[in-house]
Specification:
The protein is α/β, with parallel strands linked by helices and about 600 residues long. It has 11 helices and 37 strands. A hairpin with a 6-residue loop joins strand 31 and strand 32 (about 495-500).
């Protein structure tokens, strides 16, 4: 037997009260002999044994009553007797990721999961401690009715969340509860991509339910982006879908369709169009609806405006003018004096793309010029030997001559690429600094196909007269932002929010959220579900069991079996009710015996 409130056993000390009263009873009065009453002596002697037994029985009943009440107050739990289930710490992990919105047998999978969660919570008692945990990291505690109502109100989220982390968090909650019975229950669609890793190991028993059978076929948009980001006002929308064969799609801007196309699964489709309006715009690519509506659309952002006018200095290297010609033909840039591309030792103004000097002798002059221009970076000692460059669009690029970039105290900028663990390309307001000359003797970048689009992206997004900042995030993800961003706003211009500590948490709803510098739009955060959410393939029950992180883990596709696994009485049953019932019987016996004795004449 275990006690949930063992300190209350001290109430049993009150059982000494009737014992002391019994021992302290004394007959009071003066003993007088009356000859006429001597015949009563024999009757008293015959009745004394019965009176002693009655008083002793009353004392024992009163002691037993107090002991039973003390035991009941301590909330004992026993394995072989009792009623209901023991007080249980139970955390319910309810999967409401995007994939649970898929319709099977005429209803979303999530509706089956939430209904089962409500039925499980209906079996809870007032002595249980309950939590509801969702994949987005939200934890709610409360009574069964509150949590059941919350579960039934859940809608499919905009992304996948983190189910293994949710299970680990739930296990930590019940382990810290102090209750002897602890359980984690998981209701999930069993999507393989959501359970790609295993939850942290735990000693808590984990039971999971997942639907039986295979999910329906699905088709979703996994890529939608503007190329280039700056339309002038024409540009290209690139779309890729997964699932099925080919499908039609539509591109909407400002609530109206501006273009249509057809995409084959797994292949990029391009749609040339003219964007309406100027400045930052939001767009969405939509597919015909299927069983999973959440991935039938994907958001993107673009900026409409004149292309930057670029001038290339001879110190920029022999490959830059050819790349500039290709960018002019595609409409990404024009010729002019708005943006300069030059060696760091020769540039005379900003905005500028600054390349490292080809001759190490010029490093001192380059650093002095950077200081004069107000650029908070300096070139370090030249280093030779091939190292891999890491950064967007820079796959398979190496650097054989590089100058590690060293920041000046207080510098605020973005590191766009690294080489050998040191910054190789950095960007700030009005400048981009490259840690190598753009020459084949220093880096393989000019020989790569990515060189021209990489250069165009820097000129159009980083160095144009209008700041261009674009971030992609999953719902609820953390997004780092440059210092010039002071706030963000929804696409419809409402609910402005401030940016704290150079970061923001992506909203839970997919969409485009514009970044602000004061009241001016300077960029956008595009929130979309993870492409993996379109893959509805499920794990087998045995594989899911191995991902739950518990040796005592069970997975079932039977709702009745899952309901029975909740609040397992095998850990012990509550003995409070039997003890209170027995106390009532003892109280009734004590009252009957007291009345029977008091009814006799003295």
């Amino acid at each position: 037997m275990n006690f949930l409130a063992p300190l209350l056993l001290t109430l049993g000390l009150a059982a000494a009260v009737p014992l002391l009263l019994h021992l302290m009873r004394r007959r009071l009065g003066t003993r007088v002999e009356f000859p006429a009453t001597r015949y009563l002596i024999r009757a008293e002697q015959e009745n004394s044994r019965r009176l002693r037994l009655r008083n002793l029985a009353l004392m024992l009943l009163r002691v037993l009553l107090i002991v039973l009440i003390a035991l009941a107050a301590a909330r004992p739990v026993g394995r072989l007797a009792g009623t209901g289930h023991p007080a249980t710490a139970l955390a319910l992990v309810l999967d409401n990721s995007l994939s649970t919105g898929v319709v099977e047998d005429g209803a979303p999978v999530l509706s089956r999961l939430t209904a089962l969660a409500s039925e499980v919570l209906a079996g809870a008692s007032s002595s249980d401690r309950l939590w509801l945990v969702t994949p987005d990291g939200t934890v709610r505690g409360g009574n069964a009715d509150e949590l059941a109502a919350r579960a039934l109100s859940l809608a499919p989220a905009g992304g996948s969340g983190d189910l293994p982390l949710a299970v680990s968090r739930a296990a930590s909650l019940v382990e810290a509860s102090g209750l002897p019975a602890r359980q984690v229950l998981v209701l999930t669609d069993g999507q393989s991509t959501s359970w790609a890793r295993t939850a942290e190991p735990t000693r808590v028993a984990v039971s999971a339910f997942m639907p039986a059978g295979s999910p329906p076929p699905n088709r979703g948009v996994v890529l939608a982006e503007a190329r280039p980001l700056r339309f002038t006002p024409r540009g290209t929308i690139v779309v890729r879908t997964e699932g099925g064969d080919s499908t039609s799609y539509a591109v909407e801007m400002d609530g109206r369709v501006v273009g249509r196309g057809v995409a084959r699964s797994g292949e990029e489709a391009e749609l040339r169009l003219t964007a309406p309006g100027e400045g930052w715009l939001s767009a969405v690519v939509t597919l015909p609806p299927d069983e999973l509506r959440g991935d039938d659309s994907r958001h993107l952002a673009l900026i409409v405006g004149p292309p930057p006018a670029v001038r290339v200095d001879a110190t920029a290297g022999a490959f830059v003018p050819s790349a500039l010609d290709a960018l002019i033909q595609s409409g990404v840039v024009t010729r002019g004096d708005e943006v300069l591309v030059a060696g760091a030792d020769a540039a005379d103004r900003l905005p500028a793309l600054l390349t490292a000097p080809a001759d190490p002798v010029l490093v001192g002059a380059a650093n002095r010029n950077l200081e004069r221009l107000g650029v908070p970076w300096r070139y370090g000692t030249p280093r030779r030997g091939n190292v891999t460059v890491t950064g967007p669009r820079l796959d398979d690029v190496t650097a054989s001559l590089r100058y590690p970039l060293v920041s000046v105290a207080g510098a605020s900028s973005d590191t766009l690429a690294t080489a050998g663990g040191a910054p190789w390309v950095v960007a700030g307001e009005g400048y981009v600094v490259v840690g190598s000359p753009l020459d084949v003797a220093a880096t393989s970048l000019p020989l790569r196909a990515a060189f021209v689009p990489w250069l165009g992206e820097l000129l159009a997004q980083r160095l144009s007269s209008d700041p261009v900042i674009l971030r992609h995030a999953a719902p609820g993800g953390r997004v780092s932002l440059p210092p010039l961003v002071t706030g963000w706003v929804t696409a419809d211009g409402t609910t402005p929010e401030s940016v704290l500590d150079g970061a923001m948490t992506a909203p839970a709803s997919p969409g485009v959220y514009f970044l602000l510098r004061g009241l001016t739009r300077v960029g956008a955060v595009v929130v979309n579900p993870e492409p993996e959410e379109s893959v509805l393939q499920r794990l087998s029950p045995s594989t899911l069991r191995s991902r739950l992180g518990s040796r005592d883990a069970q997975v079932t596709t039977n709702p009745d079996a899952f309901r029975r696994s909740a609040f397992d009485p095998s850990a012990g049953r509550s003995l409070v009710t039997p003890l209170l019932a027995l106390a009532l019987l003892v109280l009734g016996a004590e009252g009957w015996m007291s009345r029977r004795g008091s009814g006799r004449p003295a």
